[in-house]
Write a structure and sequence with these properties.
about 450 residues; alpha/beta; seven-stranded parallel sheet; 14 strands; globular
């Protein structure tokens, strides 16, 4: 356990008190969301610290992530770490049913998923009493004070991996320097996405010798899975029509995408837009936008077929994005025309696509920078600019091939850092292959 400096601050005690009072209300809200998503009662109780699975024997390494992107980003790392430590077992926690469903489909060897405990006393202690992890690795910006303090108090070495903090979050922590220093001092290691985050953590009170700038872990994730049967079926429906993709779009972005598609249809009347809304529950809203744009839609979840009249195919299902990327090498990535932060460009790049983005990709600034610099991605802001970018790649196969190669090259460069991360974690967290007959 790292040497501790400072005592719990008044703000930390206040946080503990407020979360204790608010705990029952938070639990009711969380339970309703899990119920609505069809999560069983036993699994709902995981949020109260009641495990639905037994703790395996031997060394248990715990990864905690927020939701889908963060969870999937650690799969390759866990797989590689599992090869490095063949006796180790793994626990993955994440808070959303979507992430739980996707992780089950891509579960690494010797791993299991649970929902994390609410950050209040009893759930946290029940969780830690049961799982007794030998190391805890928090992904990106998952700073839950009680979970961190309780875990470190039990001698669990903690790491903040792929650390990323928004400017707003950093400024908020800087206004509470004593509390920030108290929380951060419980971590043995910080592996950040970039130099900026490393400097921010140091400025917030993290010990400089524990902070190591690195790269974005999402760049090292395995390619998204492709369903070959679905791929063949959709290809047969599309036939030889030109196609482009708008993926992970948010409210306020589809209007720009559809306006660009309207312009592109003038030059390519048989052009098909495959539209993947980030939140599938928005399917009706998106279908209405397509209708208002004067275009004809087919909806994946309604088992609509793509006909010659279909101009927009709304792919509103989970877990099929990799299949859609395999269809087409031109991908506009949403969450970027609005101030949302963008989404992971390495997912389409790994599938062999060239990427188009809006300007609001600040959550992936260090990822997009080399892509744009090398020509693997283009940045647009308006519907005419988006239409022009798509048109360039639709009409010039050589330019498209060059962009695709540049994007893939960026991915391969980033992936080379994965082994270094594994070795750093093993060294800093004292992770060694252990006797499987022993428990935490």
């Amino acid at each position: 356990m790292p040497e501790q400096t400072g005592r719990p601050t008044l703000l930390y005690h206040l946080y503990c008190g407020l979360t204790a009072v608010a705990g029952p209300l938070v639990w009711r809200t969380v339970r309703k969301k899990l119920q609505a998503a069809g999560v069983s009662a036993d699994r709902q109780r995981e949020r109260l610290g009641h495990a639905s699975l037994p703790r395996p024997n031997g060394q248990l390494i715990w990864f905690h992530a927020a939701s889908v992107g963060e969870t999937l980003s650690v799969i390759s790392l866990i797989t590689r770490l599992g090869k490095r430590l063949p006796q180790a077992e793994f626990l993955i926690t994440s808070g959303t049913p979507t992430s739980a469903a996707l992780i089950e489909k891509r579960m690494p060897p010797r791993a299991r998923h649970q929902y994390p405990p609410l950050d209040t006393s009893s759930p946290v202690r029940r969780f830690l009493d049961h799982w007794q992890p030998n190391a805890a690795i928090f992904v990106e910006s998952e700073l839950w004070p009680r979970l961190i303090v309780e875990g470190a108090a039990r001698g669990i070495p903690l790491t903040l991996l792929n650390a990323r903090l928004s400017d707003k979050s950093v400024e908020g922590w800087k206004k509470r320097p004593n509390t920030a220093r108290f929380i951060l001092d419980h971590f043995r290691l910080f592996l950040t996405q970039n130099e900026k985050t490393a400097q921010n953590l140091t400025d917030m009170g993290a010990r400089a010798e524990r902070v190591q700038p690195g790269t974005n872990l999402k760049a090292m994730s395995d390619p998204l899975p492709v369903d070959q049967i679905t791929l063949s079926d959709i290809r047969a429906q599309i036939e030889n029509r030109p196609i482009w993709i708008a993926s992970s779009t948010h409210a306020g972005e589809e209007e720009t995408v559809l306006a660009a598609h309207t312009e592109l249809l003038k030059r390519w009347p048989d052009l098909l837009l495959l539209l993947i809304p980030r939140h599938p529950e928005r399917r009706s809203e998106v279908a209405t936008l397509v209708e208002h744009a004067g275009q004809i839609a087919a909806i994946r979840s309604q088992e609509d077929k793509i006909t010659q009249q279909t101009q927009v195919y709304i792919a509103d299902t989970l877990g099929e994005t990799g299949t859609w990327y395999a269809l087409c090498p031109i991908v506009f990535l949403g969450g970027s025309l609005k101030e949302i932060g963008g989404h992971n460009p390495f997912e389409p790049a790994q599938a062999g696509a060239a990427v188009i983005t809006g300007p609001g990709y600040f959550n992936f600034a260090e990822t997009f920078a080399p892509l744009i610099e090398t020509g693997g991605a283009l940045q647009v802001q308006t519907a005419p600019e988006l239409a022009k970018a798509v048109a360039t790649w639709l009409s010039d196969q050589s330019a498209l091939d060059t962009a695709r190669l540049a994007a893939k090259s960026c991915v391969n460069t980033q992936k080379s850092a994965l082994d270094a991360i594994v070795e750093t974690l093993c060294a800093q967290l004292d992770l060694k292959d252990a006797d499987p007959s022993s428990s935490g």
